[in-house]
Amino acid sequence: MEGASHQRFPTVKIRELKDDYAKFELRDTDASIANALRRVMIAEVPTIAIDLVEIEVNSSVLNDEFIAHRLGLIPLTSERAMSMRFSRDCDACDGDGQCEYCSVEFHLRAKCLNDQTLDVTTRDLMSSDPSVVPVDFADSSSGFDNPENRGIIIVKLRRGQELRLRAIARKGIGKDHAKWSPAATVTFMYEPEIHINDDMLETLAIEDRISLAESSPTKVYDYDPITNRVVVVDPEAYTYDDEVIKKCESLKVPGLIEIHPKEDSFIFTVESTGAIKASQLVLNAIDILKQKLDAVRLSEDTVEADDQFGELGAHMRGG
Amino acid sequence: MNTILWFGKPEVYPPQKERLVRTMQEALYPIECRQAKISYTGKFMMDICFQYDDGAVIREKFNFGQFPIMLKSKLCYLRNAPPKKLVSFKEEPSEMGGYFILNGLERVIRLLILPKRNYPMSMVRNSFRERREGYTDKAVVIRCVREDQSAVSVKLYYLSNGSARLGFWIQGREYLLPVGVILKALTDTTDHEIYICLTSSYDENYEKYDRVKGSVGTQLVGERAKIILDEVQELSLFTRNQCLQHIGEHFQPVMIGLENENHVVVADAVLKDYIFVHLDNNHDKFNLLIFMLQKLFSLVDQTSMPDNPDSLQNQEVLLPGHLIIIYLKEKLQEWLLKVKNLLQNETDNSKKFDFNSLADIKKVIEKNYPKQISSAIENMLKTGTLVTQSGLDLQQRAGMTVQAERLNFLRFLSHFRAVHRGSSFAGLRTTSVRKLLPESWGFLCPVHTPDGEPCGLLNHMSSSCRITSYYDTKGNVRDFLKTRMSVLSVLVSVGMTPSLPKLVQAGPPKVLSVLLDGRIVGSIPSDLVEKAVIHIRRLKLSATSLIPEDLELGYIPLSMCGAYPGLFLSTSPSRFVRPVRNISIPPEESNKIELIGPFEQVYMEISCPDGGDGGRKNMFPASHEEIHPTGILSVVANLTPWSDHNQSPRNMYQCQMGKQTMGFPSQTLNCRADQKLYHLQTPQTPIVRTKAYEKYNIDELPLGTNAIVAVLAYSGYDMEDAMVLNKSSVERGMFHGHIYQTETIDLTEQSSNSDRAQRIFRRSNLDKSSHHLIDSDGLPYVGQRIKPNEPYCSIYNEITSSTSSTKLKGSEPAVVDYVAVDVKNKKNLQKVNIRFRRPRNPVIGDKFSSRHGQKGVCSQLWSDVDMPFSGVTGMRPDLIINPHAFPSRMTIAMLLESIAAKGGALHGKFMDATPFTSLLKEGNEGQKSESSSLVDELGSSLTAYGFNYHGSEVLYSGVYGTELTCEIFIGPVYYQRLRHMVSDKFQVRSTGTVDQITRQPIKGRKRGGGIRFGEMERDSLLAHGAAYLLHDRLHTSSDHHIADVCSICGSILTTSLIQTQQRAVREIVGLPPGRIPKKVMCIACQTSKGMETVAMPYVFRYLAAELAAMNIKMTLQLSNEAGG
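Structure tokens for the assembled complex are given below, as produced in the milestone run.
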């Protein structure tokens, strides 16, 4: 490392975008940035989740803690989350987290009166804020379209059993508790570059070529019966499992196929829990990443305070 | 006057609640007993009958107390109740019964190994030699069991002079009689007859060709017979009557109740009550004694082998009902004897006593507390100890019952399948009893035995093993006499010569003796016997014949110096049996499942589908076949997936850990009041499971979670069997659990009799500090969270008008889950159960295990983002274990499980992991080369979904985002959470209470004590040369003490603090105060000169005091450091 960093201008190309799913390419950057983005999406993008439950009546078969835990894990629509306050630094309510700036109140009242088992679901959860409600999967086009969609089941009640509670939802991040994590899955992979050495392919028998194309567990290669060649159909399906390379070796043609990961291109897959849209999740993550970097940039102004930070300050300024 | 006393018409009634109003009868259900901590008992009534001389019989009913009732027995309300009804009784829908409820605890009678009944066993033991002078180490022993299950063992010892002695126990003493006397006393016989009988096993013709296969007699038998007969003559006993007189004379003092009878009657009683009690006929006894003598002589001549008493072949089991019945019999006998003595005393002493007055007799009987009978049984079940004079012919008197813990279903179930060898063997130095012998194949599980102290002594029955009882498979009570008669008639029809009226005068090579339940019923020519056995086996299977299906046909064939030959049939209860398929009968017969016992199994040809022929080649074709190889494993061992791919000790460990798993203990959790219940909040059904899993419905009470397990060394926190858990997974509910703990507060129990009923549950109106915790009834609010040392229950004493409260013990908060009150007492509440719930979510230090004996401790809750992730699916593992867990332990099945579960999860189906199935496949198809291996099958199911064939995946570091250098083996594995949790175990102390006497820190976690820094720890510090640290641990941080020592007399005990008079010394300003004058003086020397202070452990002073108490004076010689 010379020290002189090579400034780059990362680009994003969106491939696919649904409410709860996004796939995009991130180019011209390195693994640290890509991973930072992933980590922020999972652990640091804020959402709203039920954090405090006051149980008034609970005669269900599940105990209080269990129900409280289940309520906490319900994804709530959290578009508001970025603008909301954390209750720990809310001025309006002295940090007890019961004001409109930092909390949303929910009520649940359910009692089973007949012999049929009553499913208490997220539909029964009444919110004080119409913008913060349990995520409704029926509306999303995620393939969750059950005609009788009744939301997420919290508990089942039998005749005479009752559940009555008040719940406070607050803003939080996935680092503190997994219930605040907006991301179901965030992953990226290096874009592979696959080269097939056609000259070497010539030396192979037809059956070997077919078996070579089939050796990959994922559909990366195909055998073209017209040209008698193995062609790459979907390089991104490659999982870096080296199966094809091993196959080449077993066919005594090492180097027939060469695969190199592109060190500066990543393919991201983001799945959201539904709390915020996948696209928003990425944007929020970038925002938060910038905010975090702000903290580093701040030290630019702290040259005077060098004695306070010592070598660290100089280091952060790139010295 | 001659009075006869006897019992009649015993009756036990179903459990009933105690009510003040007698007419009100209300059923008492098991759940009520569990909650109220009372016993599930029914009233036991019995008639006592009297007859004076030949007068009319007088009957009077007496209450013999409350007799414990076994759950699901005939008198239990749960009998034949369908699952729905059981649920309405607040019982488990799958309740199986078989245990007792005593004081709210569920107790099971242990199955105990006993010697096989009514079978003469030849034994060689050095202890026999020590009996008396002239005894050898050889004997033939028979444990005779009466119809009422009481047993008397008889030993036939061989003497070095060629004779034999019959030994039996009366009232804790062994009596030894010459066999000749007994032989002559049993029947009217002649010396010649006895001689012929004894020598019948020896045939001179065989002697010509040296030894013939199966001949057991030798020339010496005749000599010995002469010695036996001479012995009798030396005692000048010639006739049967003389022998009886002789026996009667000697045994009169020990035969209770026969003091006034003549000698012949006494002798008859001795023969009846102590010798071969399973036989009621003296001819049969005579024949059996002859048989035993022949067996003994054959043992001595080494023409037959001794039987192994440790082998299952010669063993049976003690059943709960049998134990109770023999104990009850003894107690009733004792009681009746006492009644008799009391009546005797009464008639002798008091003039007023009238035999014909029922009231008088009733008074005497009530004086002897008839209720003690039931309470004796109850106490036996409660404590597991037998209080008995005779010992009941059992090896042990304690540990007959154990508590059936409902930690989880497997543990509960195992209590009923466990078979114990007997606690007398636990202390034995030799390990021979613990050995796994081939005879127990199929009956006892080779895997399911604990390691450590009870290893090999506590076994578990295999899943297919059963025990015969008084009931046949259809549930009807057996008529043993009838079955014996039908077996006998079949035997005769296949060529047996009946022994009555006279024993056949021939021996083993030619004919074999036939014993039916320990009775010599005849002899069968040895060339016919094999056909006969096959014929009877066929009859066993047919439904129409009267031969019971679990008849044991122990045919011991002729051999060169093998086991003593014969045909031993038994129909008795409490034998082990297991089903095998009979393949020698024609295929048109439908029923082919035969029940066989361990005794006959040894001599049968049973093929096991292991791909081989079992070494029998074509010489001995198999007549039977195992139904499935997993039949040899216990229920718990059957649940381990692919246990045939694991190293065997790992399967044993799993059997142990499966029983310590936190799972779903009961479906009636809300009604239970157990001391402690472990509960896993979100259990799952395993993706990879064996057939047994479904068969035993483990899904009803599951015990684990499918966790995504990655095998890699990551973060360094997974070394040495530690495991890293994903924090987010845990936060989402993985392995969350609770402990339910019930506290019973019984006011009647705590208080003395004086202030009973004056204590009630009520809270104080004056002190409102605990009102947020305790309701107006003095009990806590349900759902209330209570911190340590906060009160949860308040008791008001009406006499002192003071309130006291019960405080929560421990160091962590608990939630009140349930409060149950005992409303039996209408007036005031006296007894409550308060159930607490303590959360037990995974923390660092909790123990987890897979189903393959791979246990580990959680070392870190690692954040989700730092976990490695898959580039393709984005999956992060729930759990990381270290690859070093595999090479030395060789738990291949765990790897297979991971691959299979991954495939199963992708395909959306459960995977069958029954062990040995590949062997069955090979056996059936008969083609080995073509069949694909298990790994191939599993691998291809992964490749179908684009995953790596071997179950590995490319993972990226969660911290750096770079690809990990190698592919990581990852997949779902069913993990169990074990009950050992740090929250229940951690122990820490800085300062705290010290012992009163020694001033050293106390021990014990509960009391806030420390952990002992013991001798070995001391040694290690010494070895390191860390003397200062050692001094700190053992002295400064322990009982550091500065003592005043008198250097003149050297005593530390005579020094005493003396009051210094306050001298008015004026303090000079600016100068330090003058030296404080000495305040200590020696009482003995009467001076304070020479007082020194010495630092020492306080125990040293205590030692000096203790020594002084023994008149030993300890003096100290003080010197400075230079040693001057």
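Helices of chain A lie at 31-43, 64-72, 198-202, 206-214, 243-250, 278-298, 306-309, 311-316. Chain A touches chain B through 42 residues (CB under 8 Å). Further analysis is deferred to the final report.
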